[in-house]
Amino acid sequence: MARRYDHVDLRVRSLAVARPFYLSLLPALGFTRDDSNEKWLEFESEDGGVADYFAVTESHDHVPGQNRIAFWAASPAVVDRLAEIVIKSGGNNVEGPGYEAPYYYAVFFEDPDGNRFEICHRTRN
């Protein structure tokens, strides 16, 4: 399968506040190899070869923008399962899950810092 991206380096104001959210969410999204240290939460997929990578670090003056990172899910049922994890982990401003169009099922949310995310399943563009 072709890689969709190489890595994401995300900033948060407080790693201590963000840590529980990401320790719950990232493994559920398939980032199961935890290579975190004091300054970075670092997670990789374990699909073999070069892994997808998602990292979170602290930047005290971080202000979330209007960007959104969307993760793909294999089915609407997977979106539903991950939405439950988002809510239990402290996700904010959760919208959905639900159909945005007949072919597009998604949940939208923010992390504790206000960084925007989406988990979606779509069957066409």
Describe the structure.
- The structure is a single chain.
- With 125 residues, the chain is α/β, with parallel strands linked by helices.
- It has a single domain, classed as 2,3-Dihydroxybiphenyl 1,2-Dioxygenase, domain 1, CATH 3.10.180.10.
- 22% of the residues lie in helices and 38% in strands.
- The strands form two sheets. The protein has a four-stranded mixed β-sheet with strand order 1-4-3-2, covered by helices on one side.
- A hairpin with a 5-residue loop joins strand 2 and strand 3.
- Structural Rg: 14 Å
Outline type: globular
Element-level helix/strand string: EHEEEEHEEE
CATH class: Alpha Beta
CATH homology superfamily name = 2,3-Dihydroxybiphenyl 1,2-Dioxygenase, domain 1
Distance between the termini: 19 Å
Number of DSSP helices? Answer: 2
Compute the number of structural domains: 1
What is the percent of helical residues?
A: 10-25%
**Which residue ranges are poorly predicted, with pLDDT under 50 across at least 5 consecutive positions?**
none
How many beta strands in the DSSP annotation?
8
Output the CATH topology. Answer: 2,3-Dihydroxybiphenyl 1,2-Dioxygenase, domain 1
Which architecture name does CATH use? Roll
Mean pLDDT: 92
Domain VOC: 4-122
Organism: Luteolibacter arcticus
InterPro entries: Glyas_Bleomycin-R_OHBP_Dase, Glyas_Fos-R_dOase_dom, VOC_core
Protein name: VOC family protein
